[in-house]
Amino acid sequence: MGAQGSRVDFKQAVLDLTSKPGKDDEQFWDQAWWPDTVNDIFAMIPGEDIRKLRDESPKNLATLVYKAVEKIQFSRNHPANIDQKKVINAIRLLTRITPYMLEDAEWRGYFWSPIPHGDSTKPLAAVLLENLSDLLFCPEFTISHSNGLKVNDLSTIDSCEYIWEAGVGSGNKPPMVALHYQNRSEILKLLLTCFSEVIYAPVSDENRLRWICHFTAVTNPHVLPIFTSLLNIVCAYDPVGYGLPYNYLLFNDSREPLVEIALQVLIVCLDKESQPKTDDSGYQDNYFINYLSRIHREEDFDFMLKGITRLLSNPIHSSSSYLPNSTKKVNFHQELLVLLWKCCEFNQKFMFYVLKTSDVLDILVPILYHISDARNDSARVGLIHMGVFIILLLSGERNFGVRLNKPYTAKANINIQTFTGTHADLLILVFHKLITTGNYRLQSLFDCFLTIMVNVSPYMKSLSMVAANKLVHLVEAFSTPWFLFSSPTNPQLVFSLLEVFNNVIQYQFDGNSNLIYTIIRKRNVFYQLSNLSVDSASIAKTLSGRKSKSANRDEMVDQLKSPTTANPPEFPAAGASSSTPPASSGPSTTAGLAATPALASMTGNVGNWEEKPESQEVPEEWIATQEWAEAWKSKLPLQTIMRLLQVLVPQVEKICIDKGLTDESEILKFLQHGTLVGLLPVPHPIVIRRYQTNVGTNHWFRIYMWGVIYLRNTQPPIWYDTDVKLFEIQRA
């Protein structure tokens, strides 16, 4: 039968099934296994036809699903005589149909009912997952058998000997077979589709992760080899290959689609509900998390870290090559950030290994590149959040702050002011750029930016003049009376910045002459803050110019924009219109994010001057009062800075007059040899705000992860036009 005839037969089979009750003869069903590609199936079965079948002929839909599962089970039971095209099309058919079943509450339960007239009481979902797991290690279908002999019983296969790639838990390098990669990808797509019940079920549904729970449970005999196969196939992937320019244009890369879907399945399987404080079970219910948490060999950590770093850095190498577009560029860096987060969260030893050497900087630079690159793209706000949360997690450890003192040699094309300095300077400049970029959707991250700076500030040894100016500029912007009185949380930003300055002065005075000089030169910023009028009349006068919330926002953005910016931003701020279409191609679709978790919930710390709030909600009609302003102003940690100015300003003025100095380099030399020993207040204890897992952040990560997966799976569009509940789909 020709390809065109096969397509016609398949479409007719679907139409017959939709219109005629109770079709179940084998000859009829044989017509359904002949499409050539997954796109054929998606094109031939429109979503409205699936819904019509579901709502008007539920028995026929159930029969269709049973027959597809039966075909998969038959192939699993007869691996020596497997009809690859038929079983792959059965898998594709389920991938197409399942989202429309999961969006309906009654049909979600259908998968967890026993098969009618079956010999087992196992629910259909369990049967499907077990058969798919077995087929992931089926000789000459998804793996190459060592002796080449036919295998009649998959239970005789030790899947641990057939891990897909060398790496964690395996030193064997299996042969590369493109057809096996394609078959694995099809199975993983169906698994990912089954796991997506969570995007349709209500948040209150306790069963929304049941597919994942069953698949990652100890009852799955392949859970370890599947976990290591997915992890290794991702971390071993090198899109550059042999490094020949433009080689990706000459040869089809059959590995990339497998790596991408493997990465998505891996991070989804590492999802779990937040652990109750009274639960001592650890990760024993989810064996993906269990095995990840137990990895401990340094060679395994090295393999994982180098793999993630290589792939995160790929866009940097691709864009900075001497030959334009000569290197293959991969686009799954958002999923990689989620994987890096999961590795650090579930395996403390891995995170400490990352922090132990300067390798942490190799992972930091691409993260800063990605979040800087996304700053003007409203569709990638989630990426910025994800990258900042990872840096917040790392900044809670002393080693991270210490490593930042390593000199930075520009490799990434990050759009910031040119400087000569350390990775700490790079961090400050990128954060300053993000704060002053004019994207109001990043305002919820200001607390995180500054908390990271606070965490690393006791260890910053030699800030550049550029970074010092940026820090003082932030104080200048955030300490304007209008901004301080506009929100009950705004003063906390000033508290955080002052804590950064105090930490540097108290613990790293030597070597930070650039920052000390900048504080002296811009001392009026601190004097004005110290002398801020907070009486009712002054507050009312300051706020009298408020017109509307949008005007306030614009005023704040204008205030924050860097005074050193000679030209307007290269891109319009998020939400602004532009006559120039965006450079990125593809559907104009974005997935909404959950509200950014409050910093107090992420770190377990509240502001320096606040009582622990009962709620993070700010009243709509909140107005600053004299009592409120006096409460926080009296606690401003200005003593160290004011004492520094009291001591050093007269000294600097004196040498300028006595020696006729006009060159700032001479003043810097004087400050380099100065000391404030015995003149400053007693050093305060270093306070590090470490990330703490909680329900709110767990929910945010789940929404972000599935939003990325939804948008990345467009060929075929697995979840397009279905009733997603977990996040909001925004289409232009």
What does this structure look like?
With 732 residues, the chain is mainly alpha-helical. It has a domain at 357-564 and 602-610 and 622-693. The chain is 55% helix and 1% strand. The chain has 34 helices and two strands. The protein has a two-stranded antiparallel sheet. Helix 11 packs across helix 13 (255-269) and helix 23 runs antiparallel to helix 25 (490-507). It is elongated and about 100 Å long. The two termini are 43 Å apart. Residues 276-282, 547-551, 562-587 and 611-616 have low confidence and may be disordered. Residues 544-592 are annotated as: Disordered. It comes from Caenorhabditis briggsae. InterPro entries: Hid-1/Ecm30.
Q: What is the spatial order of strands in the main beta sheet?
A: 1-2
Distance linking N and C termini? 43 Å
Number of helices: 34
- What would you report as the Rg, rounded to the nearest angstrom? 30 Å
Are there runs of 5+ residues with pLDDT below 50, and where?
276-282, 547-551, 562-587, 611-616
Major beta sheet summary? 2 strands, antiparallel
What is the count of β-strands?
2
Q: Tell me, what's the shape?
A: elongated
Structural class comes to: mainly alpha
Beta-strand content bin = under 5%
Output mean pLDDT: 85
The helicity comes to 40-55%
